[in-house]
Amino acid sequence: xxxxxxxxxxxxxxxxxxxxxxxxxxxxxxxxxxxxxxxxxxxxxxxxxxxxxxxxxxxxxxxxxxxxxxxxxxxxxxxxxxxxxxxxxxxxxxxxxxxxxxxxxxxxxxxxxxxxxxxxxxxxxxxxxxxxxxxxxxxxxxxxxxxxxxxxxxxxxxxxxxxxxxxxxxxxxxxxxxxxxxxxxxxxxxxxxxxxxxxxxxxxxxxxxxxxxxxxxxxxxxxxxxxxxxxxxxxxxxxxxxxxxxxx
Length: 248
Fold this sequence. Notes:
Blueprint: E1 6-14, E2 17-22, E3 25-33, H1 36-45, E4 51-55, H2 56-60, H3 65-78, E5 83-86, H4 92-101, E6 105-108, H5 110-114, H6 116-126, E7 131-138, E8 141-144, E9 149-154, H7 155-164, E10 169-174, H8 186-196, E11 199-203, H9 209-216, E12 223-228, H10 230-233, H11 239-246
Parallel strand pairs: 1-4, 1-12, 4-5, 5-6, 6-7, 7-10, 10-11, 11-12
Antiparallel strand pairs: 1-2, 2-3, 7-8, 8-9
Helix pairs in contact: 1-3, 3-4, 7-8, 9-11
C-alpha cells in the first residue's frame, strides 16, 4: 500500500488572531478567529494528523511575534498533534524558542537564501527531521522577507542546494496562487521533488478536492503533503472529505 498524502490545515497568526492573506499581501487580510486554540481543536476533531502554524508577525519582525509564540504554546497544550511552525525564524535562538514553545519542526524561508549557514547549523543541532526549508516562488524565482522581495535565485536551484546541505523536506509555495483558490501548482511542486530528491509539501491555491487528488497521484514521486488554508476557512473544502481523498 502506498503512503497517504498528509493534509496540513493552516493556522496563520497575526496579533494572536487567526487570519488569511491573499498572495502574502498584509493589506488583503481576512480575520477568521480570535482563539487559535479553538481552531486547532476544530481541525484535530476533524481528523487532522498535523497542523501548519505561521507567525506572520515573526515575518514582519513586530512585537506581536511574541504573542503568536504564546499562541503556539497554547495550541500545543490544547491538541495532541505535531505542529509545523514557521515565520521569520532567523537565528538558532529563535528556532530554539519555537521548538520549546511546542513546534515539532520549524520552517526556514528567507534564512535559506540569506543565511544558508543557519540551515546547516540548525540541522547539525536539531537533526534534519526538525528543519524544513520553505521555497516560496513567484514566477519561478524565490521571494524573501515575507514575500516582499524577489531574489535572483531559481526556486528549483534553491531546493537542490538545500538538499545538498542535508535538508530532507521543503514546503513549496506558489505565491501567485496563495489564498486565491485558483488551484494548486502540481507541476512545479512535482518538479521540485524530482529535481531535489527531497520530500515536498505543496502550498498555495488549493481550491477543491480535485487538487488533493492531483497531488495524491504524486505521493510516490515525493509529494508528501499539502497545506490547506483559505479553502478550509471559506468552506470550499471539508477537512474530513479531504482526508478521505488523501487516503484513497
